[in-house]
Amino acid sequence: xxxxxxxxxxxxxxxxxxxxxxxxxxxxxxxxxxxxxxxxxxxxxxxxxxxxxxxxxxxxxxxxxxxxxxxxxxxxxxxxxxxxxxxxxxxxxxxxxxxxxxxxxxxxxxxxxxxxxxxxxxxxxxxxxxxxxxxxxxxxxxxxxxxxxxxxxxxxxxxxxxxxxxxxxxxxxxxxxxxxxxxxxxxxxxxxxxxxxxxxxxxxxxxxxxxxxxxxxxxxxxxxxxxxxxxxxxxxxxxxxxxxxxxxxxxxxxxxxxxxxxxxxxxxxxxxxxxxxxxxxxxxxxxxxxxxx
Amino acid sequence: xxxxxxxxxxxxxxxxxxxxxxxxxxxxxxxxxxxxxxxxxxxxxxxxxxxxxxxxxxxxxxxxxxxxxxxxxxxxxxxxxxxxxxxxxxxxxxxxxxxxxxxxxxxxxxxxxxxxxxxxxxxxxxxxxxxxxxxxxxxxxxxxxxxxxxxxxxxxxxxxxxxxxxxxxxxxxxxxxxxxxxxxxxxxxxxxxxxxxxxxxxxxxxxxxxxxxxxxxxxxxxxxxxxxxxxxxxxxxxxxxxxxxxxxxxxxxxxxxxxxxxxxxxxxxxxxxxxxxxxxxxxxxxxxxxxxxxxxxxxxxxxxxxxxxxxxxxxxxxxxxxxxxxxxxxxxxxxxxxxxxxxxxxx
Lengths: 293, 347
Prior knowledge:
The complex is a heterodimer of chains A (293) and B (347). By secondary structure, chain A is mainly α.
């Protein structure tokens, strides 16, 4: 046997480009994270301290108390808009939103891609142009319709009017078009009808795409502010994003604003979307880049 | 098991293009028929019409004793193997094979039994729980075959099933498919652009060109008695030599005056002379001069490429004969000659 020993005498030279890359990345993440850290710091301080000194570099002892207040204390008249309640509402909105948009988008795309509809192309472009009409543009008619249907202050009133999604339809359409045609034909010969093909073949194939859409749509639904503000007037229906605003409104009164509580709620409102993105990250990238067929 | 009858079946696409001109043929029960032709000749369209994936514009299609023009593919009692296998990527091999049975509400234990049977027949037993992406091309092709077999269809349809495989595997699968078809005795229609596949696998070959049937016949008929210059040049590798010639004074003459053979009665004027490369013998006393430019070594034999009477020409030489490039005399076996008129049809 020949004894081979490799001694590393030369140290690897410092690669300046790598350092620079990291510096840029670190600066970027600090830029994004610092405001959150400052907000987090204020949640540990008594409200009076914050109003006197603003954000500081020390960590106080009020976190537990603020957390208590944030999660279970209500600020309105009815006592129903606790943090937990608002969080539940946000989850219902986010999930309902994502689920509704995915189901509707997939079915619309399925019709557009796999059925010989006479005006499929026109229909697709009509759907697509609704991207140019965001909620803000059509908010009054939308509100009127929901009101006439008696859906104010209901979950379906919050969710249903917004689940028609050009984005989801578009993405699923592109995805379905990339599914080999032989698969449809093989399924037809195998005796799978339209519904069977959709459920047995297309939905499982779209898994990654569904995950990607779920992230986008959940975060979008969770972060909705304008629509819930319009549709919900009962405190038990408030979502987090809308409810925080309610708490900070006290700023205009004479009382000491509850900085700690509202800031903690703001942090809590950020956590689920971030968690979902982190959890589904690999799926997300797969869904948008790779075609797993 | 079933016969297939096509009665003036025609396909015109919505844009007006006629992909298949009215075509009629009759496939016997248990026969293996190969549709062969260059790409765009309509062979796949014809197959897809038989499968029900493409609508029939005109004519009548019968599988067994039913007219199935408007029958759904699932109800035609057929099974199809696709070029890219078309396996369901998210299902295991077992589920892929069983899917068609499941959709037909076959009882679970019968599915188990049939899948096991097919897997054993195709040597897929060890792979039943794998996904298609974990299989090699040949194995995927076998799964596609398995999916067809378990259904016990009256008719197998193959759409260029081997063209995604490498050459060696293709030869092997060719034999496997043929043997399987023999064993099961199921009527089969096989589409390919590869004339070797057509020759080796078919009971009968249908040669298509430009949406038209050029010739229907057994491999040996097609090879030895092509009815047109198209068939003559499409079938066989290397193809039949085709030389411009003319008939004068009762003989077939090449440009330059060499007499080749006695002419059939009553014909004069320009013709195309066809001769298979292996029907040409090197012979110093031969009437024709063959200028050999290139010798292609194929192991078991050699191909000699060059010119006869200024026209490209190829012959076939067994491995134990050696020859140098240059001018050589050749002799043509007159009984093996094929003569075509100027439109390319056999005289």
